Amino acid sequence: MGRCKLCGKEKAEIRLAYARLNLCRTCFTEKFFPNRVRRTVEAYKMFPADASVAVAVSGGKDSAALLHSLREAFPAVQLVAVHLDLGIPEYSEEAERSVEALCRSLNVKLKIYRLKSEEGFAIGDFKATRYGSKLCSVCGVVKRRRLGRIAAELGVDALVTGHNLDDTVESLMATFTAGDFQQLVRLKPVLPAQQPLPRKVKPFYRTPEREAFLYAEFLSLPFSRQKCPYLSGSRSLRGKRLLDLWESEEPGFKYRVLSAFEKLIPLIECSIPQPEYMYCKVCGLPSSQPVCADCRRIEALKSRNAVRT
Ligand code: SF4
Ligand code: ZN
Q1: Based on the domain organization, do 242 and 252 belong to the same domain?
Q2: If 66 and its partner were Cys, which of 109, 127, 162, 280 is the partner (CB 3.0–4.6 Å)?
Q3: How far does residue 289's CA lie from ligand 2's centre (Å)?
Q4: Are residue 142 and residue 249 in the same domain, yes or no?
């Protein structure tokens, strides 16, 4: 791979084919990676350099890399990490240990929310409901709602999530091919605040998943390598594998999809009416339907339990 293209001294260890760039470990972790995070936050006006933000941390590589790189890129930003204990056997315990070690090493305040003790259920309990065949989708709804609520309670300027380039491009392709153009707008890197929920932002919007992993790995950040037992056969994993194949044949493909999306968004926003936001009759939070997706799922869980008892 030769010498690093930035410092010209060290041996290159990582090749970024889409940029025709070979970098050494130090230039990658100290310059290239945090600089791109800083540029992304600034370009999309995600939050100002003195903001207070809640960072969703799952215990995986993306959130470890996210918290560390935000600390590097924005030393004046007040960070609070928020972790949801989903009650998934072994996986959740390991995730929590990693999150605690990470926050301790970065000296970041950590808030843990336990589904089981706060609300009496764990993600696996949804298996017994009509949502059981799509556990990841239900888990996404549950996480989104609680992270938003906790961020609102903390009174932060923004809720930050670790969605990376691969997550976004995979969701774009899936949403696009499903013809759900209204939903495409939800994949933007900044979603505005909806009272009382703060804005949601994705500083890894332009960061490939592989690089988040390498950043966490090179810096020996604590992160869990356990696979969630509910993950197998997930549509998004298959989609990502296909995108990786495409990217290996045509470096830069994922960025090109993102650019096309950015050109499309203003057209969609002008031509397709977005759903009117109302407030959920049950929980009182913003929703596109009279009862929000989260409350509908919790209701299914409760009625299932009621039938059983
Ligand atoms: Fe939730 Fe699916 Fe992720 Fe497991 S793999 S934590 S069920 S979203
Ligand atoms: Zn609700």
Answers
A1: yes
A2: 162
A3: 9
A4: yes
Domain extent for 294: 275-309
Ion ligand 2: residues, CB < 5 A: 280, 282-283, 292, 295
Residue 133: its pLDDT value, please? Answer: 85
Cα–Cα–Cα angle for 194, 199, 204, rounded to 5 degrees: 150
Average pLDDT for 37-44: 98
Q: Examine the domain organization and report whether 308 and 197 are in the same domain.
A: no
- Please indicate, yes or no, whether the overall pTM of this predicted structure exceeds 0.90: yes
Burial 224-250 (b: 16+ CB within 10 A, else e): bebebebeeeeebeebbeebbeebeee
Pocket of ligand 1 contains residue 123 by CB under 6 Å: yes
Residue 67 beta carbon below 6 angstroms from any ligand 1 atom: no
- pLDDT digit string (tens) for 210-220? 999 999 999 99
| Mean pLDDT of all residues in 282-297 | 95
Residue in 161, 226, 228 to alter for ligand 1 test, most ligand atoms within 8 A of Cβ? 228
Whether 12 is covered by a domain: the verdict is: no
